[in-house]
Amino acid sequence: MKKYILDLKVTENRQLHTNYVLLKFTTTDGSLLPPMAPGQFAEIRIDGSPSTFLRRPISINYIDEVRNELWLLVQLVGDGTRKLATVSSGQIVNMVLPLGNMFTIPADKTSNVLLIGGGVGTAPMLYLGDVLKKHGLTPSFLLGTRSAKDVLQLEEFSALGNVFVTTEDGSLGQKGYVTQHSVLTECKFDRIYTCGPKPMMIAVAKYAKMHGITCEVSLENCMACGVGACLCCVENTQDGHVCVCKEGPVFDINKLLWQI
Ligand code: FES
Question: Does residue 234 have its Cβ closer than 6 Å to ligand 1?
């Protein structure tokens, strides 16, 4: 997929949580946003932050085709993302996109698909769910967080399919981790997609493997260049060492050398 370096205009900056903002962007000249696929990400240039030299990789949260908007869910983890979170409507942000590969969309429209997200890993699941729905599937979402206040974009997920929630403190949905949710025993899924903290993805991958379910994970390895040049995001796979930013971030679990 062709990559672009674009100046996009902020249309909205909404604080969803003390640690997350949702940024929406559109083009500056009214042209259409370039095609982007679920699982891909953008590398964002952070202007005005002297301590932030490199662009920041942020996964594509959603594409609003009607409003010609790109949504990015930004977790505030350091100087760069905190600076990015201060942008306001009308401001211009430079980004390189779309980068990386994409989740596989099953040809079989009767496939029962489960999208499991944890923390900021829920971000790519929204756009994936939207694309799956447009392909005629009914996605189910399983969102895992620490507490009810950490569940983000529940309304948007609910508009796309069934939503199940686990919280570690039991304040919303079922208490525990995503792999303990009863939906996994009550329903039969043909395919699982997951993104989130590595221990969660490993637990999901184990579950999928044990039950013979096709499973793709989106890795969150540290990234810098985003285009396979700096080698800081390397993952060891069945195909040798590969750059997650270029060959991923989406991998079939059977390609990974995780102990699952
Ligand atoms: Fe530079 Fe992947 S981020 S090679």
Answer: no
Return left, alpha or beta for 30; rule: phi > 0 is left, psi -120 to 50 is alpha, else beta. Answer: left
Atom of ligand 1 nearest to the CA of 244: 2
C-beta 93 within 6 A of ligand 1 = no
**Atom of ligand 1 at shortest distance to CA of 229?**
4
- Report whether residue 223 contacts ligand 1, using a CB cutoff of 6 Å: yes
Architecture of domain 113-217: 3-Layer(aba) Sandwich (3.40)
CA dihedral 98, 102, 108, 111 (to 10 degrees): -120
- CB of 219 sitting under 6 A from ligand 1: no
CA distances from 187 to 78, 137, 184, 232 (A): 40, 16, 6, 39
For residues 40 and 67, is the Cβ–Cβ distance under 8 A?
A: no
Check pocket membership of 232 for ligand 1, CB cut-off 6 A.
Answer: yes
Task: For residue 246, report the distance from its CA to the centre of ligand 1, in Å.
Answer: 7
Q: Which residue has the tokens 């869910």?
A: 73
113-217 has the same fold as 4-99: no
Hey, what CATH topology would domain 4-99 get?
Elongation Factor Tu (Ef-tu); domain 3 (2.40.30)
Enumerate the domain spans of the chain.
4-99, 113-217
| pLDDT tens-digit profile, the chain (260 residues) | 899 999 999 999 999 999 999 999 999 999 999 999 999 999 999 998 888 889 999 999 999 999 999 999 999 999 999 999 999 999 999 999 999 999 999 999 999 999 999 999 999 999 999 999 999 999 999 999 999 999 999 999 999 999 999 999 999 999 999 999 999 999 999 999 999 999 999 999 999 999 999 999 999 899 999 999 999 999 999 999 999 999 999 999 999 998 77
